[in-house]
Specification:
With 205 residues, the chain is α/β, with parallel strands linked by helices. The chain has helices at 13-23, 43-50, 65-78, 95-100, 121-128, 163-187, and strands at 2-8, 30-37, 55-57, 83-86, 105-109, 132-139, 149-156, 190-193, 196-199. The chain is 35% helix and 25% strand. The longest helix is centred in the C-terminal third of the chain and has 25 residues, at 163-187. The protein is globular, with a radius of gyration of 17 Å. The model has no long low-confidence stretch (mean pLDDT 96). It binds 5-O-phosphono-beta-D-ribofuranosylamine (GRF). 5-O-phosphono-beta-D-ribofuranosylamine is lined by residues 8, 10-14, 44, 87-88, 108-110, 171, 174.
Amino acid sequence: MKSLGILLSGRGSNFVAIADSIDNGRIPDARIGVVISNQAAAPGIATARQRGLNALVIPSKGKPREEHDREVVAALKRENVQLVCLAGYMRLLSPWFVQQFPHRILNIHPSLLPAFPGLEAQEQAFAYGVKVSGCTVHFVDEELDHGAIIVQKAVPVLDSDDEHTLAARILEQEHIAYTEAVNIVLSENFEIVGRKLIKRILRER
Ligand code: GRF
């Protein structure tokens, strides 16, 4: 059974999507070992507690990045976490953190990367006037919103959209994309060539 660690700072809808997928068997043979928030008031951490999950608050305020990261990594390792899922975690990870889990940290971003990295990606895309946006689940590396792409989902921008309706339709796809990406990574049935994740074809024996 694989153990997942979830890091979040806010609402936690992507965390809930992953937890639901585990509960209903869409992500088989996995459990959530720990949910960690750097924000005590994050609604996602309250939800984790309600679901009876191991939920920790590790405050980041006023701490040097690497000191906080060391506390978080220690908590993840205590729970034997094999895969770390960032789900609205509003902190950059230090290079040291990334090196602790090589190709074992995922992030979800609400745009089709490399377009619109950083904060408020849906608003950025809407203001730019793109006709298609979407979401990306990618491996985390040392750069912001940058590592190899695992899954992307496209979402058309409608003439009737505002940034809120667009963000809501992207969020629906985020929840689907995250489950797909977790399954791809847990299957270990892929290789990464340069920036490209290539799924291996299963050959019958
Ligand atoms: C999502 O839009 C995600 O793509 C971004 O932060 C938001 C988190 O939402 N990284 P939630 O907390 O998962 O509901």
